[in-house]
Amino acid sequence: MSKTSRKKYLLIVLGLIVIIVLLNIVPGLSNGLGNFVFKVFSPIQKFFIDLGNRVYSVFSILFSIRDLAKENIALREEVLMLESKVAELSEVKRENRVLREGIDLSEKENLLIIQKASVVGKDIQGLDDWILIDKGSCSGLVKDMAVVSVEMGLVGRIIEVMENFSKIMLITNKESIVAALVEKNRVEGVVKESEKSRLFVDFIPRGEVLVEGDNLITSGMDNIFPKGILIGKIEEIDFSQNQLFQKIYINPVVNFSKLEEVFIVE
Amino acid sequence: MKIVFSLILIFLILLFQIGIVPHISIDGVFVNLILISILCLSILVSWKSVLGWIIAGGFFLDFYSNGFLGLSVIALVFSCFFAYFLSRKIFKEKNFVSLLLVLIPSLFSYRLLIILLLGVFRGSFIFDYSSFGIWLLYNLVFSVLVFYISKYLHNKFFISKHEKSIPKI
Q1: pLDDT greater than 90 at residue B91
Q2: A chain contacts of residue B64, beta-carbon cutoff 8 Å
Q3: B67 min Cα distance to partner chain A (Å)
Q4: Which CATH architecture has domain A111-266?
């Protein structure tokens, strides 16, 4: 390589280092650039996300035809059971309201929906579990706001806000930690992602008796996720002898591969 | 004409990467078409000629990742230089085995660098052996495919009949 050529490549490398440092140091610069890039490419990615979800639905229906009749019967029974529970809870809610009015306490909603947003992008390197939504700071979003699915299952939290877009870290991300509790017996734990890419609850003492199928909800102890959001159901309980706590594997209620719309809540 | 063709090709690769690739993952592992295309070009032509594409491709990958800006650029520059060095100085014999011996370490170095730099950035290292292995294998298969397609396109559209000097593999 000639001296001039060497100098040229050295200048390019130095210039690159300066640009990278500037992009990461100057506040708002990478945010603004990211906003521009997503504005250009997100319509394309959203189109293919929607197309992919539709194709996935067709194939999953074809593969599950045999089980549909069985599932139908099970779901009908569950609906009947839930309808009677709703009726019971409506009565409890009415009594609660009457009592609160009686002692002059204002009724506060558990979850306030700030915005509805569409999923317009995902991680393309497969390094992290995160999604991109089409709402940002101009819609009132800030970092660490909780995000739920349209069926009110826990999705994750906002980790980066741009003007028109926001990045959501999913609860299946290896960096995600969610304070949770078992709905039935109120045992508290922390939901994380294991090395085997499965969600599990940590710090549940070995003496606690848990049942597969029990619901897991947010406890609100992390001051990020409001209390009472459904995370998933207990799928498997691991009682390995060499562990201080039992490992509870859970099945999330949200199908993260088919997310199209979400709510940002507080 | 060559520039227009290159731009259309790059746009198609970006389209595939952001639109279609996330739907064809194996155990959460994706193919990185941008990395593969730039690596193959570095082997076919030279890493210096594709430096602009390395930088642009790297920044594009960074916007669609969750690390700091420049992470993928650094990893791409290193792995493309490494691929070029291996193909010109070490595995000079132009055959299928040499191609594999160039691609495997290059892909390995890219993924490892990304994991290490992300770990330094976040202060914690997360390494999943099975995921790493699946990623390497999945991207290797596509790399071989993309290499031969790139070679064919390069010979057909980018060099004249008198300049056909790309050795046969």
Answers
A1: no
A2: 121, 123-125
A3: 9
A4: Beta Barrel (2.40)
